[in-house]
Amino acid sequence: MDGGRIIQKDVYFYGGSEPVYPSPEMTGSGEWKEAFDRAKEFIGKMTLDEKISLTSGTNSDTSCPGFLPAISRLKFPGMCLADAGQGVRGTDFVSSWPSGVHVGASWNKELTLARGKGMGGEFRTKGVNILLGPVVGPAGRVVSGGRNWEGFASDPYLSGVLVGETVKGIQGVGVIASTKHFIANEQETNRNPGGGVEAVSSNIDDRTMHEIYLWPFQDAVRAGTGSIMCSYQRVNNSYGCANSKTQNGLLKTELGFQGGIVSDWGAQHAGVATAEAGMDMAMPNGGDFWGSHLKDAIKNGTVPESRLDDMVIRTIASWYQMGQDKDFPTPGVGMPKDLTKPHHIVDARNSSFKSTLFDGAVEGHVLVKNIRNTLPLKTPKLLSIYGYSAKNPDENNPTDGLSPWLMGSGSFDYQEFGAGFFGWSSATPGTTGIAFNGTLYSGGGSGATSQSLAISPYDAIIQQAYEDDTALFWDFHNGKPAVDPVSTACLVLGNAWAAEGADRPGLRDDYTDDLILHVASQCNNTVVIFHNAGIRLVEDFIDHPNVTAVIFAHLPGQASGKALVSILYGKENPSGKLPYTVARNESDYGNMLRPDEPSGIFKYFPQSNFTEGVFVDYRHFDENKIKPRFEFGFGLSYTTFGYANLSVEKDGNKSFEEFPKGKIVEGGREDLWDVVIRVEAEVENKGEAEGKEVAQLYLGIPFTGMEGEKVPVRQLRGFEKVLIGVGETKKVVFELTRRDLSVWDVRAQKWRLGRGEYKVEVGGSSRDLPLVGQFTV
User: Percent of the chain beyond pLDDT 70?
Assistant: First the structure.
């Protein structure tokens, strides 16, 4: 270790990330052929300066965070790039959609596709060409990560299915999806260089990279994502946007990615190196690296003009592929630079998607405790409401500049948020775990939503109480409020805040736990509701006999209150399932609990070593025989379900050779996607209410024989959400692909189909799997 001396120079790490050159050129394979041919013809008419102009952003008279300049001579109108994966940010007349973690908790493919269409339609109406989302990185490795809420789940399979549906929805209405952040971007602490310290390095082995972190990006590429955003941090000590292994090797070669790679804002730290490593577009501008400097590199031969051509072709091909050359709104037309000045109204909301907003909000709620038939409520005589997350924040009002409204931090301390996001010295980031000033519709940062309308829990409860003649008492400010002991039920609403720029200080907070215990000591029917932007531990109160129900309400978007009340009163049956594992103790998460920080000889080059390998979230709990409080995939309903009649059938017409041999298509080798196993089961509604169940399939893959390698006990490889009437039985079908059955072989550099007996388990969560079968390969 360099004699224990503090490492001063980056040269110490050279070779840690395998070099892969040159950057592969777009091939126009599959459905991209026409767009590719048109893009090639387009750039044939361009001057060198015009090509250079389309490799980096410029200023505009819009509020688009990124903007590619127009080339009027060629009738190219430019392109607007805008945040984010939960809805259009920083403008008016748009919807606040359920956040990524809320979508993950719904486990609903069809609803996810509809959300993508509805959200994408709003971006299109506003003149946004590239939607900066969805998010599958972070993947949830660091449990206290500040941006986990933007992603779907702590499982690559669940994230992969949902990102695929989201990309299809967004691009189905002609908007380019920029799936992000590529790759292994798992913590906010030291995400960027500063103060003489480089960005943290995610140090990750090849197998883990493929089976956990690359997996959902593979699904996004398979779905046709037109853009990928490279990340801030380093990967094996090479910056994400200058990493030739990840961009040239994994993405453009192995996965056959046909679109373009755009930098995260300010994530470019080199000029020639990023061009050669496969980055195609610099945002928000070329800064000190591209622009005129890229032109110089082209002219002196340091960067071949063919690389420049490929950058532009990938951007323009995506523009053609989504049909943006035909009837697409003027870029940024609905993105006024200053909402406080007179501007033209562009109302992007579409009333036909109101039901999607509502259903999405409902289905991301997860009921984890419900004793003594507490829920649903039945015309309560007196409700008492406590907690800071019941009401709206006091302001939902745009101001010019970098306002709390713009950054989604209206409920939080803006000085502390700014310390993390902007680097302000007025506060210490990551010290406060809750948003005291109101309920949460999304987390904070560039992924936040802009509410044009939002219904808080309190708003919706008042309306319901009016209909039922229910008396209401409330106290949103006191940590030890007076409690009327004759209350039919007491609702305590707290939250768990998270935002870009800082990781969370912990997974629980004393203030909220003490509030819950105080109310429960005086009210024998206490219902706890969390709007949680990540995992929230509950050990301090979960077994209290007067805490009769607990709901993880996540981040529901604008229909939050209406959705919650519909569940509380039984108008909707809860059907969400946890997209992560809730532990009993923080220590149960091991080295994945908190972000890594600079230390020892790595004082200036912080290192995050992914030594757990593939054993993240429930894989970690299974491997180490740790009993969670609530397992991955868990969620209660107002009814009960039974499972029966498992059948497993191999497709005799498909190859079960050890390695795939198909050609490279979008998403990797073609035969990886062959369906080779079909599994069927029956699910019966045995209760007294209609409800939806998420039937889950977990696969135990046999040991592959690779020396020193372990495989998880079980891995999610299928899920189906079905609506089942009282007394009704429905069949669910799971189709398993070659990839689902495979392990990444680091020597062969291919997905390897193991030999032996595969265990098939089907049930309602990762630890409730009553149906067990097997097949042999």
Answer: 99
pLDDT digits (tens, 9 = 90+) for 10-61: 999 999 999 999 999 999 999 999 999 999 999 999 999 999 999 999 999 9
Residue 102 in contact with residue 555, Cβ under 8 Å? Answer: yes
Which helix (H) or strand (E) covers residue 527, if one does? strand 526-532
Residues 6+ apart with CB under 8 A from 284: 57, 65, 66, 265, 266
Q: What is the pTM of this model?
A: 0.98
Tell me the sheet residues that pair with 448: none
Q: What is the pLDDT of residues 498-547, one digit of tens each?
A: 999 999 999 999 999 999 999 999 999 999 999 999 999 999 999 999 99
Q: So what's the pLDDT on residue 1?
A: 43
The first and second tokens of residue 566, run together, are 């519909």
**Cα separation, 94 vs 126, whole angstroms:** 9
**Average pLDDT of the residues in 345-355:** 97
**What does the DSSP assignment read for 271-306?**
SHHHHHTT--BBSS--TTTSTHHHHHHHHTTSS-HH
Name residue 410's amino acid.
G
Query: In 394-446, which residue ranges form alpha helices assigned H by DSSP?
Result: 404-407, 414-421
Asked if residues 742 and 752 have their Cβ atoms less than 8 Å apart, the reply is yes
d(CA 385, CA 458): 8
Q: How far apart are CA 708 and CA 154, in angstroms?
A: 25
Query: Cα(771)–Cα(752) distance, rounded to whole angstroms?
Result: 27
Torsion of CA 734, 696, 100, 233, to 10 degrees: -90
Q: Which two tokens stand for residue 156?
A: 């690559």
DSSP letter string over 6-57?
A: PP--GGGGTTSS----SPPPP---GGGHHHHHHHHHHHTT--HHHHHHTTB-
Radius of gyration of the chain (CA): 26
Contact 227, 134 (CB under 8 A): no
3-state secondary structure of 220: helix
474 neighbors 481 (Cβ within 8 angstroms)? no
Length of the chain: 777
SS3 102: helix
pLDDT tens, residue by residue, 767-776? 999 999 999 9
Are the CB atoms for 380 and 425 separated by under 8 Å?
no
- Tens digits of per-residue pLDDT, 434-455? 999 999 999 999 999 998 899 9
Amino acid letter for position 443 = G
Q: What is the C-alpha to C-alpha distance for residues 554 and 395, in angstroms, rounded to an integer?
A: 21
Q: Which residue's structure tokens are 């091939």?
A: 27
Closest by CA to 185, choosing from 161, 217, 162, 219, is 217
Burial profile 68-105: b = 16 or more Cβ within 10 angstroms, e = fewer: bbbbeeeebbbbbbbbbbbbbbbbbbbbbbbbbbbbbb
In this predicted structure, what is the pLDDT of residue 3? 55
Positions marked active-site: 264
- How much of the chain is helix, strand and coil, in % rounded to 5? 30, 20, 50
What is the rounded end-to-end Cα distance, in angstroms, of the chain?
A: 45
- Is the pLDDT at 361 greater than 90? The verdict is yes
**690 in helix, strand or coil?**
coil
Question: For the chain, how long is the longest CA-to-CA vector?
Answer: 82
Q: How far apart are CA 714 and CA 618, in angstroms?
A: 9
CA distance 492 to 387: 5
Residue with tokens 């291919």: 750
| CB-CB contact of 259 with 222 (8 Å) | no
- Tell me which residue of 419, 440, 560 sits closest to 500, measured CA to CA: 419
Q: Which one-letter DSSP state was computed for residue 759?
A: E
Q: Taking a C-beta distance cutoff of 8 angstroms, is the pair 198, 145 a contact? A: no
- Residue of 577, 576, 580 whose CA lies nearest to 618: 580
Q: Which residues pair with 700 in a beta bridge?
A: 759
Token pair for 740: 């689902």
- Residue corresponding to tokens 């909000």: 361
C-alpha dist (Å) from residue 752 to 161, 647, 708, 716, 741? 21, 25, 16, 18, 8
